[in-house]
Write a structure and sequence with these properties.
β9, α8 and β10 form a beta-alpha-beta unit. Helices cover 37% and strands 19% of the residues. The chain contains 11 helices and 16 strands. The chain has a 7-stranded mixed β-sheet, with helices on both faces. A 7-stranded mixed β-sheet has the order 13-11-10-9-7-8-16, with helices on both faces. α2 crosses α9. The chain is α/β, with parallel strands linked by helices. It is globular, with a radius of gyration of 20 Å.
C-alpha cells in the first residue's frame, strides 16, 4: 500500500470513531435506546464515570464518543456521570451504579482506581473496567492505549516545524502516563531535530482552561514557537492561535479551535476497546485482563495534517507509522536505546527495549526535555 493511502485508511478508522454525535451538557444523565442485540447475546447496561465534562473536547469527550458508539451499535442502555472528583465523590458514584444493577461500569480516570477496587469487592457479580490504572481483581480489568506511539509521531512534526528550537509542552499531573507522553514526544522531536528542546510547564490539573492557557502563554513568551499539551481542553491551542505560533493537539482533532496553529494531534478512538469489552460481556466470555493497545489496533493515531506541514514531513511521519502497522518495531517503540536522561545517564543501551513495566513506572525525562518532575506527595 502506498504511504499516502495507508494514512487515509488509518485516519478513516479514527474519523469513524469520532462520528458519534455532539457532547451533552449537564450532570448525571441516562440514555436508553431500543434493544437490538441478537437474542443469543445477553442484553446489558453500561455506566461511565467521567472526571471532566463531556464537552471538554478532550479526554472525557473522546470517551463519551466511545460510549455513544457502543450504545448505537449494540442497542444497549448506557449512563454517565461527568465532573466526578478523583478521591472525592468517585466511590459514591461508582457504588450507586453498581447498586442500580449496571452490568459493567467503566471508570475513566487514573484517580478512580482505588475507589473502583473498593466498590468491586462489594459487588462481585458486577464487571468493572478501569482506564489507565494497574490494580485488578477477579471482576476488575484495566484498559488503556499506547498513546506514546502517537505522541512520538506528533513530536516529529513539532521538531520539523520549529524555527526557534524551543517547543513548549503544557502538562497536567506528573504521573507516569504524562511523563511517558512527554518523553515519547521529545524522542520524536530529537529524531528530526537534535538541536531542539521541549520545555515543560505543569498545571497540576487535568481540566482548567484558564490555567492551561496561562501556561501556554508563558511558554510562548519564552520563545517557544510550537505548543503541545497533555490537558483536556483546547485552551493551549487557542493561546497558540492568538499568538501566531504552531500547536500540537491532544485527545481529539482540535483544529477547529486553532485552524492556523494546529498542525496535527495525538488522538484516541475508544470505540475499539469499548466494542471489544461489550462483546465479551454480552457473550458471557469476559474475564479480567490488562488491555494496552496501540496504533496497530486503531486505538490511537494522529489527526489530519495542517496544510502548513510540508510533504517531506508527512512522508517521514507516515513511514514511522507504517512501522507500527507492519509490526516492524516493538510495541514499546520509540523507547529503544540509546536513551539518555537529563543528567546524561544512559538509561537504555543501543538496541535495548524498555519493558512495559518500565514504561508504566516512568519517572525521568529524556535528555532533550527542559523541566523538572515534581516530587510525589
Amino acid at each position: 500500500m502506498k504511504v499516502k493511502g495507508l494514512l487515509l485508511v488509518v485516519l478513516a478508522v479514527f474519523i469513524a470513531g469520532f462520528i458519534a454525535g455532539c457532547a451533552q451538557e449537564g450532570g448525571e444523565k441516562q440514555v436508553t435506546t431500543p434493544a437490538t442485540t441478537p437474542s443469543e447475546k445477553k442484553e446489558i447496561k453500561a455506566a461511565f464515570v467521567y472526571v471532566s465534562p463531556v464537552g471538554d473536547a478532550g479526554w472525557t469527550y473522546m470517551h463519551d464518543q466511545g460510549r455513544k458508539f457502543i450504545e448505537k451499535k449494540y442497542g444497549i442502555k448506557t449512563a454517565y456521570t461527568e465532573n466526578v472528583a478523583e478521591g472525592g465523590d468517585d466511590e459514591r458514584v461508582i457504588r450507586e451504579y453498581a447498586e442500580q444493577g449496571y452490568d459493567v461500569i467503566f471508570t475513566t480516570s487514573f484517580g478512580f482506581m482505588d475507589a473502583t477496587i473498593t466498590v468491586a469487592k462489594d459487588y462481585p457479580d458486577t464487571i468493572f473496567m478501569h482506564c489507565s490504572g494497574y490494580k485488578t481483581a477477579e471482576n476488575v480489568g484495566t484498559y488503556f492505549g499506547r498513546m506514546y506511539q502517537a505522541r512520538y509521531l506528533t513530536g516529529i512534526v513539532a521538531g520539523a516545524m520549529t524555527k526557534s528550537n524551543k517547543i513548549g509542552y503544557v502538562a497536567a499531573v506528573p504521573i507516569p502516563e504524562v511523563i511517558r507522553g512527554i518523553n515519547a514526544f521529545a524522542l520524536g522531536v530529537k529524531k528530526v531535530n537534535p538541536d531542539a528542546k521541549v520545555y515543560v510547564v505543569w498545571t497540576g490539573t487535568w481540566y482548567d482552561p484558564a490555567k492551561e492557557k496561562e501556561a501556554a502563554l508563558s511558554l510562548i513568551s519564552e520563545g517557544c514557537d510550537v505548543i503541545a499539551q497533555h490537558q483536556d481542553s483546547p485552551a493551549a491551542q487557542q493561546a497558540a492561535e492568538e499568538s501566531g505560533v504552531y500547536s500540537i493537539g491532544y485527545h481529539s482533532d482540535m483544529s477547529k479551535f486553532a485552524p492556523k496553529a494546529h498542525l496535527t494531534a495525538a488522538v484516541w478512538n475508544w470505540s475499539v476497546i469499548y466494542s471489544y469489552i461489550i462483546e465479551e460481556v454480552m457473550a458471557g466470555t469476559w474475564k479480567s485482563e490488562k488491555i494496552w493497545w496501540g496504533i496497530d489496533k486503531g486505538v490511537v493515531g494522529i489527526a489530519p495534517f495542517n496544510d502548513a506541514v510540508p510533504q517531506e514531513v508527512r512522508d517521514m511521519v507516515n513511514e514511522e507509522m507504517q512501522k507500527y502497522l507492519n509490526g516492524e518495531v516493538p510495541e514499546q517503540y520509540p523507547f529503544v536505546g540509546p536513551i539518555y536522561d537529563q543528567n546524561e545517564n544512559l538509561v537504555k543501551a543501543e538496541g535495548e527495549v524498555m519493558t512495559d513495566e518500565e514504561l508504566l513506572s516512568m519517572n525521568f525525562f529524556v535528555d532533550n526535555v527542559v523541566g523538572e518532575i515534581p516530587a510525589s506527595e
